Amino acid sequence: MAESNVQTLTVAPAVRSLFGRTTMIGKLLRIKLAVFGIAVIGIVTVSGILAPVIAPYSPEALVTYRSEPPSAAHWLGTDELGRDQLSRLLYGARASLAVSTLAMLFGVSFGSALGLISAYAGGTTDTLIMRWVDAIRSVPGIVLPLMLVMIIGGSIYTVALALGFNLMTSIARLMRGQAMAMKQRDHILAANSLGATGLRVMLLHIAPNCWSPIIVAASLGMSAAITAEAGLSFLGVGVKPPTATWGQMLSTGLAAIRSAPWQVAMPGVSIFLLVLAFNFLGDALRDVLDPRMRSTINK
Amino acid sequence: MLPFILRRLLVETVPLLFFLSIFVFVVLRVLPGDPLRAIIGDEITTLPAADRLVLMHDLGLDKSLFLQYVDWAGNLLTGDWGRSFVSSKPVSEAIGERVPVTLQLSSLAWILSVSLAIPIGVFSALRRNTWADAAVNVFALMGVATPNFLFGMLLILVFAVSLGILPTNGFVSFAEDPVQAVRYLAMPVLALATGTMASLVRQTRSAMLEVMNEDYIRTAHSKGLAPRHVVIRHALKNALLPVVTVAGLQVGNLLSGTVIIETMFSIPGMGRLTVNAIYGQDYALVQILVLILAVAHVLANLAADVLYVRLDPRIHY
């Protein structure tokens, strides 16, 4: 008896410190749209990870002779080559999430590093880095990734790299802005006058205070990457077939939209829901992390 | 105002294009990929080495990267944009015939989204917390999250497949036949405009809500001014400032959108040309197209900034 009391006593504060009203997760879970977003992202992630276990067929197996409408054997029908759409959708979740997560990680890590260096170094270094960043940002969204993927070839990694490259430039701008403002603060002056090295000041004193907008941008960046991945596949330069991605399912489905509209339905709905989910999460994170910023959801 | 524009052009835009031109030039040449394959196709593998050298020499690809760039940039500045590797048409000609198409498509989409988004955003803000406001919010959120090609497909399903009233492929210029032009452009323009419109609605709404809480709005109301007058002359004029900036930034999204939408609806514009040029590894065409798209994007942002200064008398340059 006494033992279980001890247990609740030790567990309760831990739970409260994670999910309590004042913590980030706690606040997030009190925003309905954020919960919806997290739920959708969770479902897609789990079905992507479990795809080999739960998919009824292999995503590349030709199980019917031609495209068939949804039936008991093939819940979402089959595509023009006779591949099971449900299995492809599940494996597609895997590819779409892998590409967008890798792109986000690449963009955030390199973008933050560039922004920090630019802000901390100042002078010519700053000008040079930011000129490059602005030059790359001036090209409308999908054009550079399209070019890069076309040249280096389409795989999950190259597409992620190309999309992350775009995200990197906006993160770099954002991080630089944050770090520039932080640089003026007294605690940075204090650290500098105590003889802290540049690297130490950047990593331990500036960076930790700049994360809030970066986290928001990362979430919105995920939704942009999912859209862009689908767009690239749609243009025929994404991850190479036969690997299933949602964009590719849409693109092949479009050719048969008159005779077999079921082919575009589920990949379309899935992309829409996942992008919506990351948008909701991003907006909610903005409300939670930065109360000064205008709320875009609940106002 | 003129000094401001000139300074922006000289200090920001010109260096930006210079950096971008180097970037694109180098990326196209340093990364793997054989430009000759684009010209002679798969026979490239059986091409004798001597012929290959001749061909490289004709295209100027045997010089050092630096010299290639200097040649190219020099020609570019004197008005010679080079020839397409694939069709050997002058690049300026290939692009020139595509520009009006994309211009019609994207400007229509922009005008449509701005002219609908601002009234809807204001309406929604003035009816805060009513069902109408909620409906606008839901649609705006959905509009922001729907990729343009997805919306394009939905339009095709409804208007071409189910109702069979709109064509899915092709383009007719307004100059030729206005009625047909509207029929061909309706779906691409709508698909392109939705995302922009949705984010402008959200921007207008939140800016209006913020402004309507200001003291000077209460003062204007208590002076007994007509509500319409307060909303339009006092509130909207101030709320439009952030909207103008976003409307300028959205031009980039529209241009990016034309790449996909033009491909989807088989519209012979710059977006589809870009895809084809990249697909065919037509360097000469790709590097100019990327620069032109960037120029359009940068000029749109500059225009937004100029308008911003005009709208806000507190800012002086």
What does this structure look like?
The complex is a heterodimer of chains A (299) and B (317). Chain A has 299 residues and is mainly α. Helices cover 72% and strands 0% of the residues of chain A. Chain A contains 13 helices and no strands. Chain A has helices spanning 2-19, 24-29, 32-49, 51-54, 85-121, 123-137, 143-152, 156-183, 186-193, 198-206, 211-234, 246-255, 262-289. Chain A is globular, with a radius of gyration of 23 Å. In chain A, 46% of the residues are buried. Helices cover 77% and strands 0% of the residues of chain B. Chain B is mostly helical. Chain B contains 13 helices and no strands. Chain B has helices spanning 2-30, 35-40, 49-59, 65-77, 91-96, 99-126, 131-145, 148-162, 178-212, 215-222, 227-264, 270-279, 283-311. Chain B folds into 2 domains: 2-77, no CATH class; 99-311, MetI-like (MetI-like fold). Chains A and B meet through helix 6, helix 7, helix 11 and helix 13 of A and helix 1, helix 7, helix 8, helix 9 and helix 11 of B.
Poorly predicted regions of chain A are: 294-299
Number of strands of chain A: 0
- Computed Rg of chain B: 24 Å
Helix share bin of chain A? over 70%
Shape of chain B: globular
CATH topology-level name of the largest domain in chain B: MetI-like fold
Biggest interface, chains and residues, is:
A-B, 42 and 49 residues
CATH level-4 homologous superfamily of the domain at 93-296 in chain A: MetI-like
Short recap of the structure:
The complex is a heterodimer of chains A (299) and B (317). In chain A, 72% of the residues lie in helices and 0% in strands.
